[in-house]
Amino acid sequence: MSPIAVQRAATSYEAARSRQATPLEAMEDALIAYRTTTSQLSRLPIPAHAVAIIESVMRHHGVSLWMACQKRRRAPDEVVAARDEAIYVARSVVPECSWGRLAKFFNRDHASLVSGARRFERLMAVDELLRARVDRAVGASRAEARVA
User: Fold this and answer.
1) Are residues 75 and 121 in the same domain?
2) Stretch 72-91: mean pLDDT
3) CA distances from 120 to 9, 23, 133, 143 (A)
4) pTM value?
């Protein structure tokens, strides 16, 4: 069972109940959300747990995944920083995340991702607080991946 799909189903159920839907109607909404999400996840170029890691990093930065995947020539700095960190953490935790697959997911070419990862590694080399936070995120993601 995908934790992403379960979370989206729960959110859908709560939204339906808050708009005064019956429990049965809310369950139908949740089931549709779950089925839609699992169908979408099966077509992704990267594993679902990598998507969960990326979403977690994006949420930490207050950036939507949609913004990070947009094809824009000049994205805001906070979006670029969040995307670079998400790529670094995903590649550190999930070995199946090749540059090509991540590039397809983020709607970029692989050279852009490699450049961003190098830029992020240089930043971590001079910022000890960032290095510590990212190391904690990688450790937590690895522990979570072992449990799942």
Assistant:
1) yes
2) 88
3) 34, 47, 13, 23
4) 0.69
